[in-house]
Every structure is written in structure tokens, then in C-alpha cells.
Amino acid sequence: MKKVIIIPAAVLLLILVAFATTGAYRVPTLEVEFVEERPAVVKSVEYTVDGLTCRGKSRGFAGMISGVEGIVSLTTYARSNTAIVEYDPTLTDPVEIETAFEGPIAHEDEEDFPFKAKK
Amino acid sequence: MRVLRTIVQALFLAGVVAILVRGAMGLTTSTCETYCPFAGLVALYPLLRYHTYTCAMNELHVALFVSLVALTLITKKSFCSWVCPLGTVQEWIGKASRKVFGRYVRPPVAVDRILLNLRYVVLVLVLGLTWTVWQGDLGFRAYDPFYIIFTGFQGHETLWFSIFIGIGVLVAAFFVPMVWCRYLCPLSAVMDPMSRAGFLRLRRNPGLCTDCGICDEACPHGIPVATADEVSARNCTNCLECVEVCPEKGALELTLFGK
Ligand code: SF4
Ligand code: SF4
User: Fold this and answer.
1) Interface touch A11/B78, C-beta < 8 Å
2) What is the CATH code of the structural domain delimited by A26-117?
3) What is the pLDDT of residues B65-108, one digit of tens each?
4) Residue B167's pLDDT band (boundaries 50, 70, 90)?
């Protein structure tokens, strides 16, 4: 009954293959354009964000940075907790954007800090 | 064989328990669903149609689902009896019940045949509801014992009735072996065609078999091994419990592509 080893070997191999090939299925979780016309100069910054785990959270994240003047677009990847933000460098900068999404969301009687940039 | 399988099962069970404990301690935002291949199937529709993922689904789920399809084609439903923590818990509960009652308690064959098809109903309902009423959300979480139990009944979509479902499945597994896997698991339904074709399967050697029927009684899925030349049943999980109890060495053997 040596063939039984095929089962755990196949399990292990296929799990490794799954992790190694996730890139093949990589598409954004959320893409948002905040402006109708893109500014002449656009810079981009990438954050890894604790709490950015799904499409709903991505929407919440978009809401939190939407008030920052100069935000151009947002693309999130929930699997890697990544947010790529395009911005107009004459109006804002990465620190201001980070401050915006790390800020609290007010609930009924308490404040919640759903996102934190990983340094 | 049994030792090897128990070690593999224990490792995966320990894995989800570790995620649960780390989550409770605030050390991770992952839950058991982060590694659930069923979400990969649910994710396929928006991925192919809209080129996006909805809810908490992502590329790892799809990759794990594709791997599961390959695993099932090679080894039948070994995922259920070697990997899935919910399968492991039900199996252990079923074994405890077998000790108490002296045998597996099973519904009559005719009832069992009908109940086996419930999984397809659940599958259609879950996929249909996800893409209509639930608008791409994993609304099934509230009904999914895997999510309910392995988030410690604390998952963010665990509702009041979810507690009854989680506990109900565990209690029911004591009276009907592998009750969730056999009758309700939508992932089990998806795996059926691949499992039927599975290359690694048991073959009974009629020259060595004495027709004692011990294997039939030991199979948690009630598969009639003692009368089959080859176990092609869609529900065979290659748990090899039948081989463990067979008193005739070589009467049951695993074969790959019939060899
Ligand atoms: S036939 Fe044997 S290997 Fe297949 S599920 Fe039943 S006991 Fe397990
Ligand atoms: S337990 Fe072994 S000897 Fe008995 S019926 Fe099954 S295969 Fe044949």
C-alpha cells in the first residue's frame, strides 16, 4: 500500500502550486477614479494596509481618502492588503493620504480606526 | 496508513485553530475562509464576467479551487478525509458514535439516495443567491458550519441561527456519519464528477476477498466495497478505513490508473 503516499504528496504539491500561481489570477479588488479629468502631473504611492481585506473594506478605504484634495485614483488588492493611490503632487502628498485613511470613522458612540499602514 | 492520515488531518485542523486563536488575539485578520477553496468557485463568475473579485474573495481562493479540482481528479475526494477540518471533526464524532452504538447508524438506503442529492440543491441555491440576492457577498457564511465553527461562532456574519446550524451539524454527525459532507456540502457536490473519474482508487481482489463484508460496515460513507471490483463511487474519500479493517492482506489495494 505504498501508493497511499501519493495523497499527502499531491495535497502538499498542489497547495504549493496554488500559492505559487496566485499571480495568474491577480485582478484588482476595487478600482476608483476620483476625477473626471486627470491632472497634468500624477504621482503614485503604494501602501500595504492592515485591515484592507475585502471589497467592502476597500470601499470604506476609498471613502476615507475621497475627501483629500488631489486624489486621482485608487486601486486595491485585498489578497496582499495593497492600495495604490494616484495623486496630484501639487495638491497633496503620501503623508496626508496616509493620515486620511488612518483616521477614525465615527460610529454611534465610539471611534473606529479600521486601517493602519504597515511600515 | 491511518497514522499518516491522522497526522495530516491534525495538521490542517491545528492550522485553522491557530488562525482562530491568532484572530482572537488580534494578531491576524485572516479567518478560516481565507483558505477555503469553495470561495474560489464562487469568485469565478465575477472574475470571468466583470474581471473583479467581490466580498472577501481573492486570487488565492481561485488558485486553491483549481488545485482542489486537480487533487480530486488525481485522488478522488481525499480533500474531505485528509484536509478539510470539518470533515475531520465529523469523522471523529462519527467514530465516537460507532463506539457507543457498536456500528455506524445510517438512514435506510432509499432515504440516503434521496438525501445525497440535497448537496446539488444547496450548491445551486448558494451560487444563485450569491449572485442575485446577496449581490456578490458571501452570504452563505451565516449558514456554513465550516465558517461558523472555525470562527469560534464569532465570525462577523455569524447570526443567531448560525449557532444552531453549527451545533446542529456537530450533533447530527453523531447520529449520521459525515452528515454535512454526504448530504449538504456544496463543495462535495462540485467535486462529484472529478471524483468519479479519480485516478487513484481502490480495487478489490476477488481472489483474496472472502466476502466477509467488514469493509462495508467500516466505510463512513456507506459505500458497498465488498461487492465492487473497483471503488469508483463519487463519495469515496480514499480514507482507507475499509483497507484498515480488511482481514485479508491484499484484498483491497490502491491503484493508480488501474495499476
Ligand atoms: S470506500 Fe473505503 S476509502 Fe472509500 S470512503 Fe469508504 S472506507 Fe473510505
Ligand atoms: S473486508 Fe476485505 S475480505 Fe472482507 S469483504 Fe471487504 S475486501 Fe473482502
Assistant:
1) yes
2) 3.30.70.100
3) 999 999 999 999 999 999 999 999 999 999 999 999 998 989 99
4) very high
Q: The domain at B200-256 falls in which architecture?
A: 2-Layer Sandwich (3.30)
Alpha helix stretches (DSSP H) within B25-133: 37-50, 59-75, 78, 85-101, 109-116, 118-130
What is this structure's pTM?
0.89
* For B77, nearest residue in chain A (alpha carbons): A7
Given an 8 Å threshold on Cβ–Cβ distance, is A6 in contact with B200? yes
Least Cα separation, residue A19 to chain B (angstroms): 7
Give residue limits of the domains in chain B: 2-194, 200-256
Q: Whose CA is nearest to atom 7 of ligand 1?
A: B219
Q: In this structure, which ligand is nearest to the CA of B245?
A: 2
Q: Does A40 touch chain B (CB under 8 A)?
A: no
For helices B109-116 and B118-130, give the axis angle rounded to 10 degrees. Answer: 20
Number of helices (H) and strands (E) in chain A: give both, helices first: 3, 7
